[in-house]
Amino acid sequence: MVASLTLTVTRAVDGTSATSHNAGAFVRHVSSGRDFSDSRTHENSTEDVHGVTGVGNDIVGTTSTQTLENKTLDHATGTLERVDIFNTGSWTTTLVGDSANPTLARFKILDNEINLNSMVTFDQNGGMFSTKKAAETDTTFRFLVTDSDGTTPRWEVLSGGTLSVFPTAATTKFGIAVRTTESNSEAAFTVCNPDGTNQRFAVNKDGAVITTSTVAATGNISTGGTLSTTGGGTISTSGTVSAGTGSVTGTTTTNELAVTTTTWSTFTVTVSGGGAATFTTTDGFFYKIGKIVFYRAYWVVGVAGTGATVLTVTMPSTPFRSGNRQSIPGGLRDGGSVTGPLVGLVFAGGSGATLDRMVLRDGTDAIGTSLTAGSIWVLEGWYREA
User: Fold this and answer.
1) 3-class DSSP state for residue 42?
2) Quick check: 376 and 333 in contact, CB under 8 A?
3) Rounded CA gap, 231 and 252, in Å?
4) CB atoms within 10 A of CB 83
5) Within 13 Å and on the Cβ side, how many CA atoms surround 30?
């Protein structure tokens, strides 16, 4: 080694034996075995070279097959093949969009490297689009939620557009839920025309079912609430229709109409025109089906009536008067010579919720003096409501 004007000689280098030299011998700068050895060793080394230190830290080739570990890639571009991503600790794997290209899709899954057909796409707004392939059947799964066995379906959407829900037998949650802040009349589920402007069918939060078209069933239709159709809609079934309340403004056609539980309403029976008559009992009840009213009026005379005024009796509602008369059958007991059947009449010229006249068995009108003490009167039948 030469430093300034000083030459330092180190003997026995690289495994050689130390030898002396004669005084005045020439010193020449030439190659040694080390020079050739270092060069060949470097060429043959794959690790611990060019500042890459540590066992197993290899030089990364551009085309060779290698395994890389513990590397941090920052804004890397290109393609990856056979990649698994592991989240460790609190790390969250995130897919970040590009603010300079806000309208482009964020993520795509393609069918294969040859066709490159889109199967699933996530757009810039977070929307997910699943694309049906040209030869795909309508029964192919697009989205599927299974039980823990990985095969039993619980929720599925097929390529043909079919949506199916299969809750477990023990579930306490059913298929469709609504927000608790919505009103009872708010639709929880709707079926609309293709552009979504006209509602065809709806189920409200309170369970009401609404349709603007036909309700048809081969079995039974049953509800504990109201069964209703408006706007000329139709309810059709070959089975039984049962409801707590039924309301139809269109046409009801049935081979048999059966009401299993009839709730009768009461009304006040008032007999007018009886003069001094008083009554120990007055009782009335009725039931309506549309504009048809079934009713009964019953009264028992305490103190006999006076005068010749024609008797009138209140009805549950105003009868239809635009046409011929309506009649209500009845009977009189303990009424002397006129005991027997009677007929109540509704006149076209009358008004209000009133039976205008009663005709006794002898053809005379019931008047104040017809109300004999202890006589029992009843009117029972049906009439057309106004």
Assistant:
1) helix
2) yes
3) 13
4) 6
5) 5
For the stretch 20-54, pLDDT in tens is: 888 888 877 777 777 788 778 777 776 666 666 66
d(CA 263, CA 167): 38
Q: What are the residue boundaries of the structural domains of the chain, listed by start? A: 176-206, 213-259, 265-384
Q: What average pLDDT does the segment 86-102 reach?
A: 90
330, 281 Cβ separation under 8 angstroms: no
∠ Cα 182 183 188 (to 5°): 65
Exposed/middle/buried for residue 295 (C-beta within 10 Å: 0-12, 13-18, 19+): buried
Question: What's the CA gap between 364 and 142, in Å, rounded?
Answer: 82
By the 10 Å C-beta count (0-12 exposed, 13-18 middle, 19+ buried), 237 is classed as middle
Q: What pLDDT score does 246 carry?
A: 65
Q: Where are the beta strands (DSSP E) in 148-206?
A: 153-158, 163-165, 187-192, 199-204
CB distance 378 to 306 below 8 Å: no
- What 3-state DSSP class applies to 37? helix
Tens of pLDDT, residue by residue over 198-225, are 877 888 877 777 777 777 777 777 776 6
Using CB atoms within 10 A of its CB, is residue 84 exposed (0-12), middle (13-18) or buried (19+)? exposed
Phi (first) and psi of residue 361, to 5 degrees:
-65, -25
Residue from 252, 348, 354 nearest 310 by CA: 354
- Report CA Rg, the chain: 50
Average the pLDDT over 221-232 and give the result.
Answer: 68
Tokens of 16: 């050689």
Residues 6+ away with beta carbon under 8 Å from 341: 329, 330, 331, 332, 361
Does residue 185 surpass a pLDDT of 80?
no
Q: Where are the beta strands (DSSP E) in 45-192?
A: 107-110, 118-122, 128-130, 141-146, 153-158, 163-165, 187-192
